[in-house]
Amino acid sequence: TVTVRFGSSAPTATLVVVAPTGTGALYGNVSVTATGKVASSTNYLLPLTTKSATVKLTVYSTAAISTSVSASATAYYTLTYGTGCNKGDMTPTNVTSAKKVTTNADGVVSIDIASTTPVDTCAVTVTFSGLSAATSDTNSSLVRTLTWQKPAAASVVVSPSGDFKSALLATNKVTYSIYDQFGAPFVGKVV
Q: Is 0.90 topped by the overall pTM?
């Protein structure tokens, strides 16, 4: 009950506050679209050449990922940047208090993230709330962290591969191809 006093009158009214249902009513699956991304559990690594990414929440009315998407469903999200980011060149800005979003006709909410000058180790975390993770989502998480990284040697392919025999004093060629964490050739670096 709320009582408002103005002069000698004191009218009262009943105010009902309804909290969000939290979890259980709706289910979400989070995916990421970005050029050159590499998955690392529920997180993703992005090359410095990638200037934008989209974190997409698809909302379902059942716990299993299916065709039962929920159009006009309400969810909430926060978005935070790590300390190594050049925040002046990034959009959107930090969203530290849960921001309400509504799904489109396909049951989707998209958060577009852009950085005009990506910085090595810059991380952005998007967290969705107000629903549960879909049970058939292999990652079962409503949180995604994207981290920009400069290329680093990550794998070696030897050709010819496996064991081989060579004749005494013969000339043999073995090629080592070095690739970075994004699958691109690691060129011009000493490893």
A: no
